[in-house]
């Protein structure tokens, strides 16, 4: 964190902001939140009251490149430039976002003030202050929102980065659940943890498994509240399905422990109903599982020598997928590319090396036997001991955080490097129904993928669709707020592109806006081709199109009315509003004005 962003204010003052009578007269209108410069913006003395309530430190977040704007030759500016590819550094900045923006959608902009809470009581103080003064609130965990929902100018930032406690349980029973729900192994994670913190504790050190996300620097609370998928979700369900209990501060400033026995509707809404919407989560407790016997994968790339050969390759691969890979073992991705190539980057759980190789051998043999294809990256498959999967030291697939004082546990996958700081031209995703893998439908799917790939590369994330998952994973995932359609989809198709970082204040050549818009239109065109075989498809909210007009149906399906009821019950005044979050249809796009 940049030291300059700390605001150390003066002596202790009484907690007057907690007395509504004194402040009620200052509130401008119930329909508009206040901004800096407005007559009703809190006075310095009132901000000081908040500072005292939270134990002394209010942040004045700055944009990531503020040091460079101030002095391009400064050491602070050089540090930002040097660490621009380090997701842990980005996550440590109050004004940092993992994505540097999205064309015509959003641009990073720091909050006016920030609270880096150390416990739920401090979060409650910030929530009370924001509610009393009619402030726009934004909640940030790991800062990985593609949609920019942890970024809001002129807001009060409530940041959970400091809440990093991790505790393993052999026999966890939720509060109020004794005698109703059997004890089970679990892990409690402060909301500031990233997934690598969870995996290091649960898998690397304790030899167990917890279902989280793929990208190791994503925040645990943001991902759980969006539903969340990891590489092995076909074996264990979406990440929200593993939630046993949460500590959450609601809009009334109350610290609640919620689970299946206490505030069950709020608990359910937190399981995939969207972050920044129902309150500020301060702690999560997740079920842990026995570690699978093996983790491994399959990889390679094949280029077809003609369009006709590419169609043949896709047809053969999809048949292979339907026959051998559509099961709880196999997750992650294959990509159908515009240059007529198929890239395989899949992972598996539960298969030994020989078993994994046996699964792929018929397909690899078929490819190698044909002169129509060129192997552009070696083909292979593996299975090995699982406990070292997320170990950073000595792992060639991981890039460690090498900053002085960084946790030795902190590393991220090589494959995620290009995403750090990326600027998005466009992004779309849709769930592809498993029915498309039936023999009679496979040719339609081949044609759709071929047509889409004429516009842009298409990635199929098989772990982000839960058809062919275990029955237990399907059952638990259906008890989350995510669109139930996810259980009928074999994969989430993602089409996205952008360019290298483009943060405000960063010195770089001007963006070619015409080319960027062309790219965005190509993404739309590719998605439209897939929509032909998956009409009205659902979409995973965290990895979706900012401009999706039917987001309620796409993200939540039949669950939306229930989510709206929970929103009205726990946040009737709309303190927590994010772009395309539950209830946001009643607010202006910037979250400042309630619509009549
Ligand atoms: C590089 C990259 C890789 C990704 N990989 C995956 C993946 O493998 N699987 C997957 O499922 N998703 C993935 N995502 C999407 C990611 O899971 C979501 O964007 C997630 O919401 C990020 O959580 P965060 O805390 O890091 O982000 P933030 O931007 O901090 O938060 C995201 C949303 O959650 C809210 N929020 C965060 N913390 C809290 C809290 N404590 N209480 C209440 N609300 C909160 C924020 O207000 C915001 O609306 C990836 C995203 C990126 C950028």
Question: Can you put this structure into words, describing what you see?
Answer:
With 596 residues, this protein is α+β, with helices and mostly antiparallel strands. Helices cover 29% and strands 21% of the residues. It has an 8-stranded mixed β-sheet. Strands 7-8-12-10-11 form a 5-stranded antiparallel β-sheet. Strands 4-6-5 form a 3-stranded parallel β-sheet, covered by helices on one side. A hairpin with a 4-residue loop joins strand 15 and strand 16 (341-349).
What's the helical proportion of residues? 25-40%
Q: Which ligands are bound?
A: flavin-adenine dinucleotide
Gross geometry:
globular
Unreliable spans are: 1-28
Rg? 24 Å
Count of individual beta strands: 22
Biggest beta sheet attributes: 8 strands, mixed
Strand content: 15-25%
* N-C termini distance: 40 Å
SS element count, helices:
17
Oligomer: single chain
SS content category: alpha+beta
Order of strands across the biggest sheet? 3-20-22-21-15-16-14-17
Q: What is the overall pLDDT average?
A: 94
